[in-house]
Design brief:
Largest sheet: 5 strands, mixed
Shape: globular
Radius of gyration: 26 Å
Number of strands: 16
Number of helices: 7
Length: 397
């Protein structure tokens, strides 16, 4: 199965797997996101409602424990106007100066200057097709609910709490899919670097720091009191440097298609920086207190990430990503990548995008015999990676 075609793929199984890792129900396990991204997309799963078995008796006192949940990675969401339908991105490729000057170097007598000489130029066209769908539902038993509560107020409170928890579950599903679009991008960049292709897309922070200082610190050493301040000030400076470098119009920090290498730039206002939340706390507490809040951490879209794939293994990723062939420009499944010490990622806002193409709730009529009705959620979404946009993965190794 691959989402990188016009087919609409069901992502239920993948979403179930991802959701169990996100919530800590299962430990970190390899997943294949190549089937989910356009060139990377994710899956959602349905759960079963088991509440009614516990409500078949009269309740003396009922306490409804629920609160709204707001999904993380909401900054990756783009509306249909920006990223809907079959997206086609057209990039104009710079061409070399191919003609000699004739204004200051006149041609010889007997020759003319042709001002209508043509130059067609070079254009890179990338498309994002395919999408992922999933459904979820719950059943309301009218007779059971009428017997389970003492009055209308208690019944109303139950409905409000139940709908809030269902909304929270669906909100977390959307978060899980966005999280997977992010991990696909990270794993794809890492695969290229491991294959000695586009190696500037991965930054090995600890290796660079040890080379700079002549030390031999490990990932555990940097959190020790004598090292923590100096190392994280270096990290802050390195992020600033990478962010500024990405604002330059160049072919660095991106995957380039053979013969159609675009010169791209990413203004700070269009950059997103996702860092391990614990490290971001340290930077805020120990680095920002002694330095000015200059770019990029003050002006880019910065978000702390508590874990990348599994809440049980916060800094690890095990993903078989969707990638793009740099010789043909065709999307395909990459190879399994196991990553540890994932510290963060910086990327252009167009490098990772999610789009809700369709989101609909609908109720069935009341079943006259069983006295119940179903509420169905149907979602059609698209999760996209563009590896030709700028992005750098930060590793604590």
């Amino acid at each position: 199965m691959s989402v990188n075609n016009l087919a609409i793929e069901d992502v239920r199984a993948l979403l179930n797997d991802l959701h169990s890792q996100v919530t800590g129900k299962t430990s970190l396990a390899p997943v294949t996101t190549a089937d989910f991204i356009s060139m990377a997309q994710a899956t959602l799963a349905a759960g079963t409602d088991q509440v009614y078995g516990a409500l078949m008796q009269q309740l003396i006192k009922t306490v409804f424990a629920t609160r709204p949940y707001e999904r993380k990675f909401a900054g990756l969401l783009a509306d249909n106007e920006r990223w809907g339908g079959i997206l086609q991105k057209v990039t104009y490729i710079d061409t070399d100066l191919s003609e000699d000057d004739v204004a200051f170097h006149p041609v010889i007598d007997g020759q003319s200057v042709d001002q209508y000489i043509t130059k067609k130029g070079n254009i890179l066209v990338t498309r994002y097709v395919g999408s992922d769908v999933y459904q979820d539902w719950f059943t309301e038993y009218e007779a059971a609910l009428n017997n389970a509560f003492q009055n209308e107020a208690q019944l109303g409170a139950f409905y409000a709490a139940k709908m809030q928890e269902i909304s929270n579950k669906w909100e977390q599903y959307l978060e899980t899919l966005s999280r997977t679009a992010l991990t696909n991008f990270i794993a794809a960049k890492y695969q290229f670097e491991q294959n000695s292709q586009f190696t500037e897309g991965v930054c090995h922070l600890l290796t660079e720091y040890n080379t700079l200082t002549g030390q031999s610190l490990t990932a555990q050493d940097v959190y020790k009191e004598p090292n923590i301040g100096g190392f994280f000030r270096f990290v802050r400076a390195r992020i600033n440097t990478l962010s500024r470098m990405m604002t330059n119009r160049s072919q660095k920090y991106q995957v380039n298609i053979t013969g159609k290498e675009p010169n791209r730039h990413s203004p700070v206002s269009m950059q997103k920086i996702y860092l391990r939340a614990d490290a971001l706390d340290i930077i805020d507490a120990m680095v920002n207190t002694t330095t000015y809040h200059d770019e990029p951490l003050a002006y880019a879209d910065v978000e702390g990430v508590d874990y990348w794939q599994s809440i049980e293994s916060p800094d690890e990723i095990q993903v078989t990503p969707a990638i793009i062939d740099p010789t043909t420009g065709i999307a395909s499944a990459g190879t399994a990548q196991t990553m540890t010490d994932v510290f963060g990622v910086i990327f252009d806002q167009d490098a990772i995008v999610t789009n809700m193409k369709y989101y609909r709730l609908a109720n069935t009529p009341l079943n006259a015999r069983g006295l119940y009705f179903n509420t169905w959620l149907t979602v059609n979404a698209q999760y996209c990676n563009d590896l030709t946009e700028k992005g750098v993965v930060l590793l604590l190794d």
